[in-house]
Amino acid sequence: MSRPSDRVLGFTLLAAALFAATFVDATLQRAAHEPALQRTERLVEDLRLSDLVLFTEARYTRHLTQADLHSAFQDHPVALEHFPSGSLLPPPALLLDRHEPLDREAAPSD
Amino acid sequence: MLELANIRKAFNQGQHNEYWALKGIDLEIPPARVNVLKGPSGSGKTTLLTILGCLARPTEGRVRLKGEDISGLPERFLTEIRRSTFGFIFQQFNLVRGLSAIENIILPGYPTGTPRARLVERAEALLADMQLSHRRDAKVEWLSGGEQQRVAICRALINDPEILVADEPTANLDSKLSAEFLAILRRLAEAGRTVILTSHDPLVVESEVVDRVYSLRDGRLIEVVDTRRAWP
Amino acid sequence: MNRWIEKQRHLIDFTASSLARRKGKSLGLLVVYTLLVFVLASVSLYTHALRNEATRVLAGTPEVVLQRLIAGRHDLIPPGYIEKIGRVRGVQKIEGRLWGYYYDSVLKANYTFMVPNDRRIPEGEIVVGPALERSRGLAEGNGISFRAYSGELHTFIVSEVLAHESELVNADLVLMSEPDFRRFFAYPDGHYTDIALWVANPQEVRNVGLKLINALPDSRPILREEVLRTYASIFDWREGMMLALLSAAILAFGIFAWEKAAGLSAEEKREIGILKAIGWETGDVIAMKFWEGFLVSLLAFLLGYVIAYIHVFHFEFALFAPVLQGWAVLYPSFALTPKIDGLQVATLFVFSVLPYTAATLVPIWRAATTDPDTVMRG
């Protein structure tokens, strides 16, 4: 007779094994990523980069830390930018359309 | 085997609706016999049964099991005694719905920590004894009344108790099933187990398998009759 | 000891079959519970790993970047400025940086144009980041034209695409030679965008910053430690935002779980009465109920965490990335390095397993201490 607790404990054990496996996987991945991370660190040093490419929607947020002293949404002149505008949602299509003629005018003909 | 001395039991003691269900009972249950507590409803027979079965404590008086006073023992020890010495069959059978017959039978063995294989083996032997092996894995709610009762008997016997306690066991059975049930009790008593049951069913009280009848009325024992002409 | 283990296994048997009896309800609870742990674990794993990656990668940025301000706005560094800094004590190395933004109206995205100091790029050639390769379909040897602010078109040949593995920092870069850069933006000779500084003694960075402001009152030094702190606070801010949004869901689940765990149905009460009558002790009933609460919540924690781990580190956090990373036209595609904070996992464990287990035990206490003879008395 198959025992109910066998199934429950077996399943829990399996889940625990997967849980443990995530830590093994994390260690392996860390080792695998290490060379690339080191190369990235070198690149940052060589090119004198200062910011991540996470917020490219506006010039004053692409390089968050290199903003003007009084830029939009800054807490305080001494505080560095950390509230990227429009960061949760892209701009509405309606507004984009309004800029379409302007964009066409400025666009290169390539 | 089991002796009661001047047992009194009150409900709602100290309150305005205080009620004495038992008003001084002395009796002795002999071993390996079928004993019946009989009386109209409200006579206190079920209350007396709960005290005999260590399910409840008397308000006053002593309970002696094999000469040892157990009425003053703490709850833990009482549970231990109840588990090892008594098996219970309830009027509504009180099987746990959703579980199979065999799972119901081995339930009382859980707290003892007996290995499951041994519990199952014992339960299977009991089921075979009751001609119920084919219903082993059926959920209890799918069993007939008679089958449910036999499962309840198996459950009462799983821890191999010396005393079997049953409350109105035939209340939900027809005459034929009642007769079968009484035959089972007879067998158990002959095998050395003490059986105590309550009933107001004449079929039970007057049955020839019964050894002794205790009549109760208004919380008092009014008569004890040994019904079997010849003791085996 | 063996008896004890056997007994606990019996209790788990019972718990397992009673859960199986209410399959729909139990499974529903487990799914919702797992989902909640999944969301919480995803957010905290991702935030921790990203914060960690940012700190690690940006550790090599210049110790001080000096901007010049005019009327509170960033302005170009005029000739002679760098020489003035040379006289500030403690400064080890000074370099003018040349970089700027270019808005590409085809993609409606901003690129970062930059003159590298570590390599010579021949005139007419550019090195581009992987995002340009992806979105503009560029490859080595391709030509691309950009329209300068003066209106004229400049055509460049792509000589190299930067490594994909570093997308987090190089995705939108366009590297070009200094003459090209100055011609394209009509950048005046001798001027720079800003200045990168290195300080000999790391403990002196703050002092050097102060000295720079004293010597050059129109300057604004940005320290590396400020940069790192800014990034840490961005992700904290976003994590907090996410958790605030989630708090309603957490609360709702709390009520649901409490209701489920703490409320005993008549059926369950009857069962407990039966168990007591057939010889179970109060402690046995409570232990049985403990296993129910503990196993359900443990399972939810383990499954939720494992799914969250896979989601964050193998599926690039696809579900919540926009909320935590921010929105952008040019999106870097990067695989985070798994960096797990043990304390964070332990906290998650405690907060997901303990309250539920406790909630299952509260009502059982009263039910389990009822007298066993109640079953007989109907």
Structure overview:
Chain B: It comes from Thauera phenylacetica B4P. The complex is a heterotrimer of chains A (110), B (232) and C (378). Chain A has 110 residues and is an all-alpha fold. Chain A is built from four helices and no strands. Chain A has helices spanning 4-47, 59-62, 93-98, 100-106. Chain B is α/β, with parallel strands linked by helices and 232 residues long. Helices cover 31% and strands 27% of the residues of chain B. Chain B contains seven helices and ten strands. The mean pLDDT of chain B is 90. In chain C, strands 1, 2, 3, 4, 5, 6, 7, 8, 9 and 10 form a ten-stranded mixed sheet that branches. In chain C, helix 2 packs antiparallel against helix 8, helix 2 runs antiparallel to helix 12 and helix 8 (224-262) runs parallel beside helix 12 (342-368). The two termini of chain C are 37 Å apart. The interface between B and C is medium-sized, with 35 and 33 residues.
Keywords:
heterotrimer, A: 110 residues, mainly alpha, 4 helices, 0% strand, elongated, B: 232 residues, alpha/beta, Rossmann fold, six-stranded mixed beta sheet, four-stranded antiparallel beta sheet, 10 strands, 31% helix, 27% strand, globular
Q: Structural class, from helix and strand content of chain C? A: alpha+beta
Structure annotation, total helices of chain A: 4
* Beta-strand proportion of chain C: 15-25%
Count the DSSP helices of chain C: 12
What is the residue-averaged pLDDT of chain C? 87
GO molecular function, one term (chain B): ATP binding
Keywords (chain B): ATP-binding, Cell membrane, Membrane, Nucleotide-binding, Transport
Protein name (chain B): ABC transporter
GO cellular component, one term (chain B): plasma membrane
Summarize, please.
The complex is a heterotrimer of chains A (110), B (232) and C (378). Chain B is an alpha/beta fold and 232 residues long. Chain B has helices at 45-52, 75-85, 101-106, 116-129, 145-157, 175-190, 202-205, and strands spanning 2-11, 19-29, 34-38, 60-65, 68-69, 86-89, 163-167, 194-199, 212-217, 220-226.
